[in-house]
Amino acid sequence: MSNRAVCREASHAGSWYSASGSQLNAQLEGWLSQAQSTIRPARAIIAPRRVFILGPSHHVPLSRCALSPADIYRTPLYDLRIDQKVYADLWKTGLFERMTLQTDEDEHSIEMHLPYTAKAMESHKDEFSIVPVLVGALSESKEQEYGKLLSKYLADPSNLFIISSDFCHWGQRFRYTYYDESQGEIYRSIEHLDKMGMGIIEQLDPMSFTNYLKKYRNTICGRHPIGVLLNAVAELRKSGLEMNFTFLNYAQSSECRNWQDSSVSYAAGALIVH
């Protein structure tokens, strides 16, 4: 039996982002320097020991959540180590399946957060690990089940959670062309639809978010990871833990004005524990 570490390659480097460590580092420094804080400055920062990254499965059908077979996730900056102790604890629950390395490397939802994670944590790079979880097309009851399971990790201030998701994928190539003409041009309708969903997420009510998705069918690719997070928060609020979620930024890849156009929306927000 080999003791060699299993490494997941940075399979989307060179296409989705730069494969050059120096170039990627410069890009990240530039982008991060432009970020403006829209909430009051932190009075203290505790560097997380573990970073959970929940991403949707785009390439394989999953009805549950899956764990990686890898020990190491490579990035052009430096390698990130998977927390095998947490992985073992999750595996013991019987709720997870194991994805193949090929499935892991085909998927981009988790990988796209790795360069940012590595850059943000570079001064602590030997002191933290990651917990990547690929989230399938979960039923409402399964979102509740995984939310309850992960709530104890969310409650631990040494853990950080990243939820990977775009917002509306609009256009004929996405087979989604919802349009509320009362909002004006198509891109305004998309923004209204997205911000309706964002407002519901900020309420931290998983059932309201589920009902919104049922009504409008908004093509939010990370709707199930978001659902897991909302259910984890709901579980913690039962014990009196106060939290609030605030969206900080919103953008669209292009402004759709006719039926031949297409766009993908992006939103970023933060969960604050009081």
From TrEMBL:
InterPro entries linked to this entry: MEMO1_fam
Pfam families per the UniProt record, alphabetical: Memo (PF01875)
Family per record: Belongs to the MEMO1 family.
Name of the protein described by the UniProt record: Protein MEMO1
